[in-house]
């Protein structure tokens, strides 16, 4: 298949939106938005305001290019700016969590062996030897290749200093500072169950399997935020698991309200709630969650006849009373 859509100037982009029913009260401001943020990026935020067509059974059959009446371009811009601030708030929390996990993992494994991260016998045999198909490298071998590449390309002063004095093999408490959240979560997933449980318990989570899935999902969330991708109203692909009822009081408060567990884990709100939990475990006096709540309560009102709210992120009824 060939791509046939032509290049459009900003003025042509604006005219196309108007032709499709988009309301624009200030052409100059609209053009500035298209120039600053881009048509394609903003399209993710005006997507909910496009007309939908349904079949005889009431199932969605087609989403047209035309807009629901009274949809304004600034509706999409306001949603984009709301989403941008939300991503920045979450990056703040994710940085705290990532740094703390670096310390936790390096401290625990480093006590076993200075180079525990290079020795699969210090990890869970079955987890480290897991493969994704015939002929594929083991989880440990795949992770090791990535680790070596990341450590080799690091230009951090502390890494250069260590290599100059001691050689290329970095002890875990040095190596861990070169890894990203993904590498951390992958190493955690290969650790022995007793070690995973020990770290999970530091965060008030007794279910090591659920905690492992949390780290994987938080890495997914971090990638969304770091790459400036849309978070609001997003379907979560890498979904976290839920501990059994009774394991976490706050989670029990959110479950079974107006959302099923399947709906809860598929939307961004639960990942935000997990960040809240972990930040407060790290610092019980943190006010990060209050800044997030204040921002969520300022969800922008839109002019469009199609009304949307923060609930599209998967927030259960009464979330604000708990948060």
TrEMBL record:
It comes from the Bacteria. InterPro entries: Abi_system_AbiD/AbiF (IPR017034), Abi_system_AbiD/AbiF-like (IPR011664). Pfam families: Abi_2. This is Abi family protein.
